[in-house]
From TrEMBL:
Family matches, as PROSITE patterns: PROKAR_LIPOPROTEIN
Gene3D superfamilies noted in UniProt: Tetratricopeptide repeat domain
SUPFAM superfamilies per UniProt: TPR-like (SSF48452)
Protein name: Lipoprotein
InterPro entries: TPR-like_helical_dom_sf (IPR011990)
Domain of life assignment: Bacteria
């Protein structure tokens, strides 16, 4: 294995003593949040369709008054699946406030990939969670869909505009952060390729589906949805821009190409049937886990190895249906956005910054162990090793209730109620689809044993559903 950190000449005893105190204090307090374990109860309940239980588990693990971004992302999704779109929107708008805070700070600060002293000293889990870039974009996309389902066209238009602006800012930040990471890597003599990390599952990030993505934050679904929304508003120039971008992000998809080619013809048609966009959301985001890897560095002209944790995302391999039966017609589903692959592409792009922070941290923690051993003997060395092991965990935070993949279909249906059958991991399930208007968006969320159609429900419907559950 090549050396990741070639020297540690910048690590001094003056820095190590405060470092030891920080490491020890963070080891003793609750800074080490185990998010994946924390969300297991909510995730299992969601997969089984027990959404009230999922919300209750989420609340149980977030009792403080200062709720973080992940709380609002997860809760907004659970409320959406319950059919409470109004509260889902309100909750997601609180998440959006936190994302906008990140945006405002990012416009003023270059190199956020290397910020937060605690992430260099302890681990990345102590950093404030600002969301993965694809999560920020999906937040606006799901808000767009909620607004359209609720008849709030103005709100949908605002979110689409926000999506475009957010993507532009992220692209600009990536370019600046790349330069900053390269500068820091040279300054600390760090090699930033993850392929040099012995034992790291390189194949998860070199997956052809990951490499085929333009980046880890732009979703073809987001742009196709924008095209569909603007088409429904009879704004062909904006609609064609959305369809064109979707094709660019997901080429060789006939359904996407037909969206652009058939635009003028659809706008000129006399209204008879409803143009329905079916959005099928499958699976759940794969968990981030820690992989501990030895990082070598030089301390007082001697080679030293420190164990440092890196994040790993294994492919989810979730079930994805290939078609949906509506009445007596089988409709093919076109896979449009693989959020699983996007998460791994985002991690791939993030790895240089993670490696720089980890290499600096490895040298600092390793030097702390060596100095404590020299100054305090075997007990000091042991204390340093224990503190390092206790605090060395990769950042596993991720929006867990997002689907791992999104597929779409487009079909003309007569207004009214239609019966649809779709496969799930536990066999076919049938749901009722209510269709009206010239254009309609119908999302379907596949769970382990059921299918949810997240459409608006009145206050009376929500109260009645709660009453039935209480009676049972």
């Amino acid at each position: 294995m090549k050396k990741i950190m070639k020297n540690s000449s910048k690590v001094s005893w003056v820095k190590i003593l405060p470092l030891a105190g920080v490491v020890m204090s963070l080891t003793a307090c609750g800074s080490m949040r185990h998010y994946q374990a924390e969300m297991q109860g909510s995730l299992q309940a969601t997969k089984q369709g027990n959404l009230d239980e999922a919300v209750a588990n989420l609340e149980k693990n977030n009792t403080g008054s200062d709720k973080d971004l992940l709380y609002f992302l997860e809760k907004g999704q659970l409320l959406r699946l319950k059919g409470d779109l109004a509260e889902s929107v309100n909750t997601w708008l609180k998440a959006d406030e936190k994302v906008r805070q990140w945006e405002d700070e990012s416009k003023l600060t270059v190199g956020k990939a290397l910020e937060a002293a605690g992430s260099v000293v302890v681990n990345d889990k102590v950093r404030r969670y600002d969301g993965q870039d694809y999560e920020k974009v999906m937040l606006s996309t799901l808000l767009t869909m909620n607004h359209m389902l609720s008849g709030n066209v103005s709100g949908a238009r605002t979110e689409i505009k926000k999506t475009y602006e957010r993507e532009s800012l992220i692209a600009s930040l990536h370019e600046k952060e790349y330069d900053k990471v390269e500068e820091e890597a040279k300054s600390h003599n760090v090699e930033t390729t993850f392929k040099n990390l012995r034992g790291y599952p390189v194949e998860t990030l070199d997956d052809p589906e990951v490499l085929s993505l333009k980046n880890g934050y732009q979703s073809a679904f987001s742009h196709y949805l924008a095209g569909f929304v603007f088409e429904s508003l009879h704004e062909p120039s904006l609609a064609s821009a959305g369809y064109r971008k979707a094709i660019e992000l997901r080429p060789n998809q006939p359904l996407l190409e037909q969206g652009l080619k058939g635009l003028q013809g659809r706008l000129a048609r006399k209204v008879k049937d409803t143009d329905v966009l079916l959005v099928v959301e499958s699976g759940f985001m794969p968990a981030r886990s820690s992989k501990t890897i030895p990082l070598p560095f030089i301390w007082k002209n001697k080679p030293v190895i420190t164990q440092i944790a890196f994040p790993v995302i294994q492919p989810s391999h979730d079930f994805r249906p290939s078609n949906i039966q509506i009445g007596n017609k089988s409709v093919e589903l076109s896979p449009i956005s693989n959020l699983d692959a996007m998460a791994r592409r985002a991690l791939r792009d993030e790895m240089p910054g993670i490696i720089v922070r980890s290499s600096i941290r490895a040298a600092a923690k390793g030097a702390m162990q060596q100095e404590m051993g020299e100054k305090m003997g075997a007990l000091g060395s042991l204390a340093g090793i224990i503190a390092t092991a206790a605090t060395e965990q990769a950042d596993e935070r991720i929006w867990t209730t997002l689907p791992s993949s999104i597929s779409i279909a487009r079909i003309n249906l007569k207004p009214g109620v239609h019966q649809a059958t779709i496969s799930t991991p536990q066999g076919p399930r049938t749901v009722q689809l209510s269709v009206s208007g010239q254009y309609a968006i119908i999302p379907l969320r596949l769970l382990d044993q059921s299918v949810i159609v997240p459409t608006p429900r009145t206050t009376e419907q929500l109260a009645a559903a709660d009453a039935v559950k209480s009676a049972n």
